[in-house]
Amino acid sequence: MVTAEAGRAPALTPSARSVTLERLLPGYPAPRYWRRVPATGQHYLDLGAGDPVLFLHGNPSWSYAWRKLLHGLSPHARCLAPDLPGFGLSRHLRPACGVPDPYQAQLDHLDGLYRHLVEDGQAPQQGWTLVLHDWGGPLGIAWALRHPGIVARLVICNTMAFPWPAAYRLPFYLRWIRDHSILAGVVHLTNAFARTAVHAGVHHPLRAAERRAYLRPHARRADRRAITDAVRAIPRDTSDPVWRLLEPSSPGTGLSSLPMLIGWGMRDPVFTPVLLEEWIRRYPHAVIRRFPDAGHFVMEDASGELAGHIRDFLQGPP
After folding, report:
1. Residue 32: left if φ>0, alpha if ψ -120 to 50, beta else—which one?
2. Could you give all domains of the chain from N- to C-terminal order, each with its CATH number?
3. Alpha carbon distances (Å) from 198 to 133, 201, 272
4. pLDDT of 284-309, one tens digit each?
5. What is the pTM of this model?
């Protein structure tokens, strides 16, 4: 069995290992594409060659969510898909007490991943594309603002990176988990948030084996703390300090000049069309692709179309 601690299959013959992996993680890239950052133990996938494209997943998913896009785009670019610390096959963040600041911790790990890829992985220092989903959105945008000049393009998929618009209302179940420690404890104990997401997050149902693959790294209670912490860290209002991470450090270092593609699942119960309209208002130059029959996991429901749009976007002018 693949575990979050080991990050690999049991000792088997190559053919048996391949069959076992496909059964446990259907569609996931083979272990020859698996890597770890030596300094942190962060797990990531590395497929293809060319300009780097960094895929940042959200909560409660992991790099498994990108598998279809990775297969479609790796012939055209170097696709890098980390498991954020605490998710998937990466080592788990262990806060000393209370609710941590996961944003700063994740940004520090992104710094470590970038240094490793540039210094040891022969990746270029500039010309990166970020593909961002859910919680990966504010992390990726904050990281891009933290390091002006590295990111050349942005692909936005059902996420946010600005204070909630006045017309938006966070779903009640997320507010309840965020604001009530007892309920958060129950959700952590039962893994209810992740179990619900693999059903409610798609319009076209996943196969049972795919749902199990999403949940597998977080089967043990000790390995799902980051899921609950991420919900409890959802910003409440404009005074939340996380928004300061999403402000340009100085004039001229914002994102308005970067080419941007927005691929949006219109059936998302959390990242609703209200948030898409705010993206459009803030970045009127963005290329918009709406997917009427896609839910929160737009990379699942509209993988073929989305991969084609991203491929064309990557091959367009910078």
Report:
1. alpha
2. 40-314 (3.40.50.1820)
3. 15, 6, 18
4. 999 999 999 999 999 999 999 999 99
5. 0.91
